[in-house]
Design a protein that fits this description.
Blueprint: H1 2-7, H2 13-31, H3 40-52, H4 56-69, H5 74-86, H6 90-103, H7 111-121, H8 125-136, H9 144-164, E1 169-173, E2 184-189, E3 195-200, E4 219-224, E5 235-236, E6 245-251, E7 256-261, E8 267-274, E9 277-278, E10 282-283, E11 293-298, E12 304-309, E13 319-324, E14 335-336, E15 338-339, E16 347-352, E17 358-363, E18 373-378, E19 384-385, E20 389-390, E21 401-406, E22 413-417, E23 427-433, E24 436-445, E25 455-461, E26 471-474, E27 480-486, E28 489-497, E29 500-509, E30 517-520, E31 523-525, E32 543-545, E33 549-550, H10 560-575, E34 580-585, H11 593-609, E35 617-619, E36 628-634, H12 646-650, E37 656-659, H13 673-688, E38 693-698, H14 706-726, E39 734-738, H15 751-757, E40 760-766
Parallel strand pairs: 15-19, 24-30, 24-31, 34-35, 38-39
Antiparallel strand pairs: 1-23, 2-3, 3-4, 4-5, 6-7, 7-8, 8-9, 8-10, 11-12, 12-13, 13-14, 16-17, 17-18, 18-20, 21-22, 22-23, 24-27, 25-26, 25-28, 28-29, 32-36, 33-36, 34-36, 37-40, 38-40
Length: 767
């Protein structure tokens, strides 16, 4: 009855058996009557009888039926809250108890006590202490509850302290494949980590009988690790009987198993594996008595066995003792532990490290958060055990956390626990360290991808339940940074320079299997205009590349789209008469070089026809590339890109032209001054052409994700439209659309090309 003992706290098992005959008769009577046929009072009577005998699971449906008919039934609210508190829903417990208090604060003289318990279980430690203090002042000092309150107050203070300083572990429910709405506990993992033995009180066990607390007897089940890393559904094994059968320990290369059987108050048995079957269990020598022996663990060298028993305590609490193996193979007399492991409360479920010098165990005593907590103690050379150390939150909680069993390499562990994400009663949970990882990266400038120096990169965890982790590394010299943080966290990344905030980013760090895993994360800062080369319009050495002119296969005939682009090129070249342009005609095999030459010639002739001086045009070599012609402009003076209104007159509906100065900083939608000047020109053109309607299209480069770029391009186009409306252009003549990064003006293969791709285009809708 390992689990049953935990649920009954310090009540005597023997006392419960004295009540069993009467209780059985009551339950038979109550459960034989259809629940839905009873009126409210009959349901309440059944619930109260079950509640009185601590059958909280069976009482709850009756209380809930009462509350469906009368949601403000104070007694049903209060007692259902207490029932939830003892079982599986701490949140519902607090909700119902508080509601009963609001309706009638004097309903029960112990209601402040139960409010304190509910607050404690829900991590509201300050409120729990307030309730406990009020309740303590309302009872006599000699009242037995006064002593219990001292314990709860100490637990609450410990819980508050541990909760504020969480340890670096992630605790995860193994889920519905393993756990059930009933109690699942005592996990035992095989040395290869592929088999998980557990104990369960689910209804599909080996017996239909119920224990005195109204729940099925315990059975031993086994799960196996599947190819995808998940656990299979538990299967029963042939060791189970009609009584309690529970797991303790796999040992001797997983060939032997220690189990608990409910025999003479509870005993420890051993069984050995023969092929696929376990032998008939035999009592472990020198341990068992007529009292309660709940669990045992044999050291790896086989020389000591530690076990829990209540044989030596008047109040029936469990303590841990041990036996030593003698040279003749027999076992010594029972020996007490040296040190302060045992208390006047329960100590149970010992687990020893491979060297036998570190013990993990469960205790209701010591500095715990409530219920059972997992503790660790180390043995010195003189055989004394150190003061037990609480493993802390989130391994421990204000409720029962018991039966700690790590994997052979100690990278993971398993426990049984009541938690808010549980499926009902106790569930099996997996514990994994949140290892430290090293984040390395570069501090890069937007668009240019230049490594930038002098920035501070700070990581801060967004999880409130995990210790905040911030790390800094100033990239003063190299443009590199590194930070050591915890895995399995979402981090806010803050980038600053000289104490001034620059930008914020984020990173989700996955769960790592080892300490020191290295991950890469580059961070980006806005372009530093002071360090950029002069803009295109002021750089007399710049070779300005226009959009390439594409041709059909084996053709040198200009398309209408190509002519539109060349119209823009001609206007710009005419405004810059001292510039020279080289036209490169390209071809794509199996096309011939002659086709490339003809394409260059076609572009040359068209530009001349549009007013570009022939002496400013040269044709270059034909190369095997794409079926296109490219224009390479060599400037002698700053490039003049002023928009010519005549382009509008000659451009048909559906045609578009680039507002070449309407640029934006990376990740920004705020117009730059030169962009406003270009839009002022467009405003004047639209005033000269009162029927002209245009769409403003926003475009980005390829830095950033697609969704972000789409949103950014829309914001930029909208900013240009709003500027025109603000300056007198009627709103019904304008529209906007974002195209993201899908229509680059130039290949995103250089910093300057990306700058030109962050553009706004005007498309004529009607005129």
């Amino acid at each position: 009855m390992r689990n049953n003992y935990v649920l009954l706290h310090n009540y005597s098992i023997i006392t419960m058996y004295k009540k069993s005959i009467l209780l059985f008769l009551q339950l038979t009577l109550f459960l034989s009557i259809g629940v839905h046929a009873q009126d409210l009072e009959e349901k309440l009577d059944i619930a109260n009888s079950l509640y009185k005998n601590e059958h909280y699971r069976n009482a709850l449906p009756y209380y809930e039926d009462v509350l469906k008919e009368n949601p403000n039934h104070v007694e049903a609210l209060f007692k259902s809250g207490v029932s939830y508190l003892h079982r599986f829903s701490k949140e519902k417990a607090l909700q119902n108890i508080l509601k009963s208090f609001e309706l009638d604060s004097n309903y029960n003289k112990h209601i402040r006590y139960w409010m304190g318990r509910a607050y404690q279980m829900n991590y509201e430690f300050d409120k729990a202490l307030t309730c406990y203090t009020i309740y303590k002042n309302s009872i006599r000092k000699r009242d037995q509850r006064s002593e219990d309150l001292v314990v709860h107050i100490r637990q609450t203070e410990t819980g508050a302290k541990l909760f504020k300083d969480p340890k670096d572990y992630i605790v995860r429910n193994l889920g519905p494949n393993v756990n059930s709405p009933y109690s699942d506990h005592s996990p035992v993992i095989s040395s290869d980590g592929k088999s998980l033995y557990l104990t369960s009180r689910r209804k599909d066990g080996s017996s239909d009988k119920e224990e005195l607390d109204g729940e099925p007897f315990e059975d031993i089940l086994i799960c196996t690790k599947q190819a995808d890393g998940t656990w299979s559904k538990p299967e029963t094994i042939h060791l189970n009987t009609s009584g309690h059968d529970a797991t303790n320990q796999l040992y001797d290369n997983d060939s032997k198993l220690l189990i608990y059987k409910f025999h003479k108050g509870g005993d420890i048995y051993m069984t050995e594996k023969n092929g696929d079957r376990w032998s008939d269990p035999k009592p472990f020598p020198e341990i068992n008595t007529k009292k309660y022996e709940s669990s045992a663990f044999l050291t790896q060298d086989g020389k000591r066995i530690y076990f829990s028993t209540n044989r030596y305590k008047k109040n029936d609490d469990l303590d841990i003792y041990y036996l030593e193996k003698m040279e003749d193979g027999s076992w010594s007399q029972i020996k007490e532990l040296k040190g302060n492991i045992n208390t006047r409360f329960d100590e149970d479920a010992p687990y020893l490290s491979p060297d036998g010098k570190t013990m993990y165990f469960s205790s209701r005593g010591h500095d715990n958060m409530g219920g059972f907590d997992i503790f660790r103690s180390s043995m010195n050379d003189e055989g004394y055990w150190s003061e037990p150390e609480n493993l802390g939150f989130p391994i421990n909680t204000p409720d029962d956390d018991v039966y700690y069993y790590p994997t052979s390499n100690f990278k993971k562990g398993y426990i049984s626990s009541y938690r808010s994400d549980g499926l009902g009663e106790k569930d099996i949970y997996e514990i994994q360290p949140m290892y430290g990882v090293v984040i390395e990266g570069l501090v890069l400038e937007d668009s240019t991808n230049r490594q930038m120096n002098g920035y501070t990169v700070t990581y801060e965890s967004k999880y409130k339940t995990t210790r905040p982790n911030s790390a800094k590394d100033i990239s003063k010299d190299s443009g590199k940074y590194s930070a050591r943080i915890l895995c399995y966290n979402t981090y806010k990344i803050s980038i600053s320079k000289d104490g001034q905030f620059v930008r914020e980013d984020s990173l989700v760090v996955p769960l790592a299997d080892d300490e020191g895993t290295r991950l890469s994360k580059n961070v980006y800062v806005p372009i530093d205009r002071k360090t950029l080369p002069p803009p295109v319009a002021a750089d007399t050495k710049h070779r300005y590349i226009f959009r390439n002119t594409y041709f059909a296969k084996n053709s040198a005939t200009l398309s209408e789209e190509a002519k539109h682009e060349l119209d823009i090129a001609a206007e710009i070249l005419k405004k810059n008469p001292e510039s020279n342009v080289v036209i490169n005609g390209n071809y794509k095999k199996p096309e011939s070089a002659k086709t490339g030459e003809n394409r260059a010639k076609a572009v040359q002739e068209y530009l001349v026809s549009k007013g570009v001086k022939p002496e400013n045009i040269k044709t270059g070599n034909a190369t095997s590339n794409e079926p296109q012609a490219s224009l390479d402009v060599k400037l002698k003076k700053p490039l003049n890109l002023d928009l010519d209104p005549s382009i509008i007159a000659r451009t048909s509906v559906g045609g578009s032209f680039v507002l070449r100065h309407v640029y934006f900083n990376t990740a920004k939608a705020e117009l730059k001054p030169e962009g406003k000047a270009e839009l002022d020109t467009l405003r004047n053109i639209m005033m000269d052409f009162p029927d002209l309607k245009i769409e403003l299209g926003g475009h980005t480069d390829d830095i950033g994700n697609d969704t972000y770029n789409q949103q950014l391009s829309e914001s930029r186009a909208k900013a240009a439209m709003e500027y025109l409306i603000k300056n007198g252009v009627p709103a019904n003549r304008l529209s906007y659309k974002g195209y993201g990064e899908v229509q680059p003006y130039l290949p995103n293969d250089s910093d300057k090309n990306r700058l030109l791709n962050r553009r706004t285009e005007a498309t004529i809708l009607s005129k």
